[in-house]
């Protein structure tokens, strides 16, 4: 059993195809692991907000029947997966980490979820997240934080810390995350897992509860680049239900990952972003990054430094555009349609019910951003804030366009620091926001990015992530370069990085 949970999704798929295991057996193995290490809001990893053991086992049994009949739906048919609680799931609670949606059970599936089910992947449950995906530590969840499997006293990143921690703790071989400003890639970096933000529009947003529509993107959370490629090929592609979905075939990601796995980067032009280093970047993170860049040179890549001068304004622009969109999206939580309804004493008006409900249902970070957003959009300030931020967004896209004339991919550390301690930045919103310095530009301009583990920082022994960014629709480049890095780093580190994580209580690794 223990051995099963340590295998990658590709290995599990091969074992299923060879008849060496069944979906029921490996789904049960992951459910056992969840029971052993996940705990609750007070202890354990707490990656899951809801575990659907019965549903997952029923889906697994159906998968085994298809295999017996020689009719699997997909290579990943029967391989279980966890889904971030911001994607709606028919019949399974969906809270977005918020009190305001406590107890809400959606009547339909997000397109991503529908595609997972259509391919036969049993859904283990819904993973924890910062409320409405606002945060970098999962501490803004109304249901208590997720803890980093490398050190339960530290954050697993955010907002999708639940998905990353579930995969890092071997509770799930695969997970789905969403990335609006870094929420797939930064949790990947600090938990030693792989996280991909596809090209904007590459994966349907239908049924993804919107944080900021022009930035949100769902994507894979895995332990290897190949697993991410398999998953993105499955969930990606045009969806008529999402008007921003790209109507083009998904690039050949599995082929790109296979090509990269040889560890050869001959002819690939790599740009190191000048603006993503310097003050505030942890020395151990920069050391691992530099070492990875040296390994890329040895693997045949041509490496140059590339300046993207407007990236320094990305964070400021993001924290105007995101709250503006979020404040408008969150207006629908009005106590009339979904979830919580708080009715004050007496004979309250509809407005008083809304007020009381939103006051009790939203946490501090959500309220902060609603206030920021409505202010930025108010008529007297629209041009000064929102309008300016949109101009900065254009300048950032131009920086990317100029850079990608010179190089095939851009690289940087994914996050400025390794996992910090729980509580360390909770009362300092600005310090929390700075975690996304390197990830936000990709969301603002829609380009794809992958974070791959790049070793452990000397000062604390915690994982460091390296980010690879490519032009829009060239997601395959992220996979090729990511897979090559994985190969050269595995020989440097003597095997997969996660094998170095300290064992968790209650379950042997
Ligand atoms: N940490 C960023 C924020 O708080 C990113 C969130 C995300 O990608 N969902 O907005």
UniProtKB/TrEMBL annotation:
Similarity annotation: Belongs to the amidase family. GatA subfamily.
Keyword Protease part of the UniProt annotation: no
E.C. code: 6.3.5.7
Name assigned to this protein: Glutamyl-tRNA(Gln) amidotransferase subunit A
Keyword Nucleotide-binding in record: yes
Subunit structure: Heterotrimer of A, B and C subunits.
Organism ancestry: Bacteria, Bacillati, Actinomycetota, Actinomycetes, Propionibacteriales
Catalytic activity: L-glutamyl-tRNA(Gln) + L-glutamine + ATP + H2O = L-glutaminyl-tRNA(Gln) + L-glutamate + ADP + phosphate + H(+)
Residue ranges constituting the Amidase domain according to the UniProt record: 25-478
Enzyme class: ligase
Function, in words: Allows the formation of correctly charged Gln-tRNA(Gln) through the transamidation of misacylated Glu-tRNA(Gln) in organisms which lack glutaminyl-tRNA synthetase. The reaction takes place in the presence of glutamine and ATP through an activated gamma-phospho-Glu-tRNA(Gln).
Active-site feature positions: 84 (charge relay system), 159 (charge relay system), 183 (acyl-ester intermediate)
Keyword terms: ATP-binding, Ligase, Nucleotide-binding, Protein biosynthesis
Gene3D superfamilies: Amidase signature (AS) domain (3.90.1300.10)
């Amino acid at each position: 059993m223990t051995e099963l949970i340590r295998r990658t999704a590709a290995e599990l798929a091969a074992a299923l195809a060879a008849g060496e295991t069944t979906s029921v057996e490996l789904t049960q193995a992951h459910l056992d692991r969840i029971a052993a290490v996940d705990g609750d809001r007070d202890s354990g990893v707490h990656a899951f907000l809801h575990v659907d053991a019965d549903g997952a086992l029923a889906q697994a049994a159906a998968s085994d029947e298809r295999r017996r009949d020689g009719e699997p739906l997909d290579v990943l048919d029967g391989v279980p997966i966890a889904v971030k609680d911001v994607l709606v799931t028919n019949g399974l609670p969906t809270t977005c980490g918020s009190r305001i949606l406590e107890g809400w059970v959606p009547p339909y599936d997000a397109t991503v979820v529908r595609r997972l089910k259509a391919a036969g992947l049993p859904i283990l449950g819904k993973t924890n997240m910062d409320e409405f995906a606002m945060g970098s530590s999962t501490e803004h969840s109304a249901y208590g934080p997720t803890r980093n499997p490398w050190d339960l006293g530290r954050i697993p990143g955010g907002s999708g810390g639940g998905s990353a921690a579930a995969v890092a703790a071997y509770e799930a071989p695969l997970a789905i995350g969403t990335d609006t400003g870094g929420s797939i890639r930064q949790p990947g970096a600090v938990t030693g897992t792989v996280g991909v933000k596809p090209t904007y529009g590459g994966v349907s947003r239908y049924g993804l509860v919107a944080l900021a529509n022009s930035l949100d993107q769902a994507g894979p959370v895995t332990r290897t680049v190949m697993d991410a490629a398999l998953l993105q090929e499955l969930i990606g592609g045009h969806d008529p239900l999402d008007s921003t979905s790209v109507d083009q075939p998904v690039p050949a990601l599995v082929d790109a990952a296979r090509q990269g796995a040889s560890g050869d980067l001959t002819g690939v032009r790599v740009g190191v972003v000048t603006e993503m280093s310097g003050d505030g970047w942890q020395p151990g993170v920069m050391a691992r990054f530099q070492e990875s860049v040296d390994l890329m040179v040895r693997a045949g890549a041509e490496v140059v430094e590339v300046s993207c001068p407007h990236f320094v304004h990305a964070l400021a622009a993001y924290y105007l555009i995101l709250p503006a969109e979020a404040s408008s999206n969150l207006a629908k939580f009005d106590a009339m349609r979904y979830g919580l309804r708080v009715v004050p004493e007496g004979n309250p008006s509809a407005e008083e019910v809304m007020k009381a409900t939103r006051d009790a249902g939203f946490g501090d970070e959500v309220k902060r951003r609603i206030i920021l957003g409505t202010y930025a959009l108010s008529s007297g300030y629209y041009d000064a804030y929102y309008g300016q931020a949109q101009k900065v967004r254009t300048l950032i896209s131009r920086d990317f366009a100029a850079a990608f004339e010179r190089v095939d991919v851009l690289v940087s550390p994914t996050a400025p620091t390794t996992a910090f301690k729980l509580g360390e930045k909770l009362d300092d919103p600005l310090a929390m926001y700075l975690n996304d310095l390197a990830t936000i530009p990709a969301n603002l301009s829609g380009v794809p990015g992958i974070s791959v583990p790049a070793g452990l920082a000397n000062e604390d022994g915690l994982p460091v992530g390296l980010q690879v960014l490519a032009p829009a629709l060239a997601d395959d480049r992220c996979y090729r370069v990511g897979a090559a890095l994985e190969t050269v780093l595995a020989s440097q580190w003597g095997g997969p990085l996660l094998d170095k994580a300290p064992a968790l209580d209650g379950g042997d690794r």
